[in-house]
Design a protein that fits this description.
- Helix content is 36%, strand content 19%.
- With 697 residues, the protein is an alpha+beta fold.
- The chain folds into three domains: 12-212, 2-Layer Sandwich (Heat Shock Protein 90); 234-347, 2-Layer Sandwich (Ribosomal Protein S5, domain 2), CATH 3.30.230.10; 462-684, no CATH class.
- Belongs to the DNA mismatch repair MutL/HexB family.
Length: 697
Amino acid sequence: MDEPKGIVRLEQSVVNRIAAGEVIQRPANAIKEMIENSIDAGATTIQVSVKNGGIKMLLIQDNGSGISKEDLPIVCERFTTSKLKSFDDLSSINTYGFRGEALASISHIAHVTITSRTKNDKCAYKASYSDGKLVSTQKSSGPPEPKPCAGNRGTQIQVEDLFYNMVTRRNALKNPADEYHRIVDVVSKYAVHNTGIGFTLKKFGESVVDVRTLPDSSDIENIGAVFGQAIAKELLCVSCENTKLGMKMNGYITNPNYSVKKFQFLLFINHRLVDSTSLRKAIDTVYSAYLPKNTHPFIYMSLEIAPLNVDVNVHPTKHEVHFLHEALIVETIQKSIEDKLLGCNESRTYYTQTHLPGTSLLPVSLEEVSMTQSSSDEKTYAHQKIRTDSKEQTLHSFVVPKELNNSQSDKASSKSVSASCKKRKSTDSPQLSLSKKRKHHKPIHLTSVNNLIQEVKDKEHQELCSLFREHKFVGCVDQTRALVQYQTKLYLISLTKVTQELFYQLVLLDFANFKPLQLNPPASLYKLALVALDSPESGWTSESGSKESLAKYAVDFLSKKSDMLEDYFSMKIDENGCLVSLPILLELFTPDLDRLPMFILRLVTEVDWESEQQCFEGVAKEFSYFYCIKHDYFLVDSEEKNVEPSLAKVLPWRWIIEHVLFPSFRNDLVPSKALADDGSILQIADLRELYKVFERC
């Protein structure tokens, strides 16, 4: 027999690295630990920036109590904490962190830099760490110590090169986009639960914010801001309490009208983000009686249990906790949810499966096939008749719009514009799709533009193309949705995404051939940039620099590109840094100039100006985002837009949608496959199915 191998004591660095790998499994775990530390420090604002999915860099900044200079040397050592004194304290722990392993674990697998300032400090102190120890950032003979620097009250932690010394773990991580999605999930859940704290999450170096909540927002407002208003509108408040079990539950659940394919479950036990398989299954069982098969609800639940009944020290990442009377508590919550859902069963809304144009709701029978192949003299049944006469009335004929109550001068102007449009249609050459060349255009031989046009053609959806070419306009539902008929089916068109695709394609189609839309008076780029930076949408923070310097940079940057912008896009910028004109992408259509400041800022920050093709693509996308129809487009009067000629006041919004946008959809739009999947086009009725309902009545 072989001699037994001797037992050796592992080096401390190996022990620490193994422990760190258990606590920090991916970038999202590091963000979770640091967010919890910020909350424990009493922060009211927490800002998170991420680079390359968190693998390259994680940056979190708060305005909490901060870390004193005296504590900085040991803050990254293992088992150093301000929240636990003895083992007995675990039975009454109410804070997030308590073991003192979060920062220590991170420092063993990444390069950590902490900048912190307390309430009584005159300045901030900066310290760098490696393997839990304070290291010197400058060459000096003495021991390393925190260095004074400028900084706001609170703590900023910068984590770089995560898992740089654990190659296997780093290679096992999925792509940066997936890791960033996990970080968004963690920050979103904490943002919903912590109503007194404002959260911000964005990718490093970008102005667009992916998660933003305000410190004074309610639970429902946070859910709407993070997960969407579609969920917030369908929420029901639930609560229950059992003093014998020492538990109290509050939360929000979606009603039976809402369902998704993936169970969205936000569970906090004593304000700690955890998961409970038994509770998840119990809730899903209740909803199975209300929702379609393989669909699930959205649940946000805050459960408070007496600290004596909870063991929080059962998982390295604190993702799971154990608590007493689990079966009884789950049963109590399940019954509370079931009682709430029973009370809303009388106001159910049912939705049918959306079908793309050209597909049938039911399998076609042999009789129907033979009927379509029969001769024209055979009888055509009522449910097979297709309305195609353009002289028939639209839906608006049965409703008196508010625009008809305007003055006689507005009526006369509208009639004159309508007559001129009809005259133009009869004399001008018709508008053609991207697959054909336009007349009276100077030719463009740029390979980059031709490549972008070819990409549009490659993404064409044939069935949707037939719908837009052959549709019959029915009427407007509101300012962003319209009804059209295609064959025997009725479709609801959401105009935002469709017009965004239309204007993107028009920029490519009319490249370097735009007529100028004069701004009177010209708009100062500097003032526009300042207005954009004042908007929350810009994502501006004090770290980005002063607004005045950023606005000046935007003016200088665009002024250098002025010749190209004017030649290719009819976007003229004068020597004073003022915007003189914009391109006319569609006759009789004026963009909403209230969105002009953000358009100017996004041209500077969101467009890749180094590569020709990516530059043209980025500019075209920004124009499409600026020109597209949104819910507030028609709320702005033409006089407020300072645009000549002023048409928005003369033309009612229904007229613009029917006689300007939809004719362009018919002639210019090449609908992409994305429109078939994002809900922009929904089938809401089919004549054949309606006749079956009428026959049963």
